[in-house]
Amino acid sequence: MKVFILCERIHTKEDLHEILQTALSLPGYYGRNLDALFDCLTDLAKPVHLVLCDFPRLQAAIGEYASALTAVLERAAEENSRFSFEMAPRDVLFG
Q1: Which are the contacts of 88, defined by CB distance < 8 A and separation ≥ 6?
Q2: 58 and 17 in contact (C-beta within 8 Å)?
Q3: Does the pTM of the predicted model rise above 0.85?
């Protein structure tokens, strides 16, 4: 499954976790923090490819937390071969 996240819709850490929980169908007990995200991503049973569109907008909105997110995504991809991610320009969706 390929999941696209349009980063311009994220203005806070809370927005980020709400959108990720919905888009990735994370469980109700998801703790909405980076540790919980890592746990959920490394437990994925089905393949998921996450595409973060317009990542610079996310960096502008949530600052260093965006870098921490990237580190978590990289670690999760290393631990779980069913998870991968990329950062893409906004026009990947809107051509």
Answers
A1: 51, 52, 53
A2: no
A3: yes
Tell me the C-alpha distance between 63 and 67, whole Å: 8
Domains of the chain: 2-94 (3.30.370.10)
Q: Is 74 exposed, middle or buried (0-12, 13-18, 19+ CB in 10 A)?
A: exposed
Structure confidence at residue 91 (pLDDT): 74
Whole-angstrom distance, CA of residue 58 vs CA of residue 13:
10
Residue 69: its H or E element: helix 64-79
User: Mapping DSSP to helix (H, G, I), strand (E, B) and coil, where does residue 24 land?
Assistant: coil
